[in-house]
Every structure is written in C-alpha cells, then in structure tokens.
Amino acid sequence: MSTLLNQAIEKRISVYAQIPIENGELIHVLRYQKNQFYKPHFDYFSDIFNLKRGGQRIATMLMYLTDNVEGGETYFPMAGSGDCSCGGKIVQGLSVKPTKGNAVLFWSMGLDGQSDPNSVHGSCEVLSGEKWSATKWMRQALHT
Ligand code: PD2
Ligand code: ZN
C-alpha cells in the first residue's frame, strides 16, 4: 500500500473516530480461509507490558477488504437484542457481514475509562470464499 493511500485511510479513521492519528497502532491485515475464524476476545489488554506503551486500547476500526465470502461475519455476542447469523448458525447478538469498502467502529472502553467486557467480539467461520480485513486499534496515548 502506498504511503499516501495509507495516510488518507489513517486520516479518515481518525476523523471518524475522533481519536488522533498518533494514537493508532499500525494497521493489521487479516486473511481468513475456509473454516477459519477468530474466537471471541477483547481488544483491550489485560497485561501490564502492553499498557505501559501507549496505554489501553480505546477503540477499533475494522475494515472489510473483500466481500466474496459466505460466513465470516464480525460477531458481537453481547450487543443488540436479537438473533443474528454467524458462520451459518443463528446465534444471539449482533453480527456484521463483511462487505468490501465498509467498516465497523466500536469501543472497548466506556466513557468512565473502564474496559468494557460487553465489547467481546470475534470473526465467524468462513463457509466459502476468503475474507480479508484490516484492523486499526487506537490507544489512550501516543503510540509512535
Ligand atoms: O476480522 C474480523 O472480523 C475481526 C474480528 C474480531 C478482527 C478482529 N477482531 C481484530 O482484529 O481484533
Ligand atoms: Zn478483535
């Protein structure tokens, strides 16, 4: 990815999330092939080592780079109030279908500065095709 394009993406994320570019970690690109998933987890840290450099993770911007995939939803089990589809199964919570060009912004921390366990999320099993996504994690403090 060109530096200029990367800068434009970082700027757009920063404006949308209202978090300075400097607080962002490097973008991570993920590829999921058939039958692959990312088990539910928190994006915030529980260990001191990571907290010392750049503080806690506040928010995550997840960007979908492909959409020729069946399954592969991003899944928030504690969000919403109904059912949703996750890797071909109907489950409770809220899921987001990967659509190329779309992005999801969510917070791992409440306004009180406490890590929010309801931010638990994962990536559902890919049933067919391939899913590519890009993640920008944003911290409380400078992370350069
Ligand atoms: O690729 C995803 O949908 C996904 C789901 C959960 C990515 C992450 N977490 C992450 O990069 O933290
Ligand atoms: Zn995550």
Automatic annotation (TrEMBL):
Q: What is its main location?
A: endoplasmic reticulum
Q: Please give the catalytic activity noted in the UniProt record.
A: L-prolyl-[collagen] + 2-oxoglutarate + O2 = trans-4-hydroxy-L-prolyl-[collagen] + succinate + CO2
Record's InterPro entries? Oxoglu/Fe-dep_dioxygenase_dom (IPR005123), P4HA-like (IPR045054), Pro_4_hyd_alph (IPR006620), Pro_4_hyd_alph_FE2OG_OXY (IPR044862)
Q: Which cofactor does it need?
A: L-ascorbate
Keyword entries, A-Z: Dioxygenase, Iron, Metal-binding, Oxidoreductase, Signal-anchor, Transmembrane
Membrane topology qualifier: Single-pass type II membrane protein
Instruction: Identify the domain of life.
Output: Eukaryota
* Record GO cellular component, one term: endoplasmic reticulum membrane
- List the GO molecular function terms: iron ion binding; L-ascorbic acid binding; procollagen-proline 4-dioxygenase activity
Q: Where in the cell is it found?
A: Endoplasmic reticulum membrane
What's the protein name? Answer: Fe2OG dioxygenase domain-containing protein
Q: Which organism is it from?
A: Lupinus angustifolius
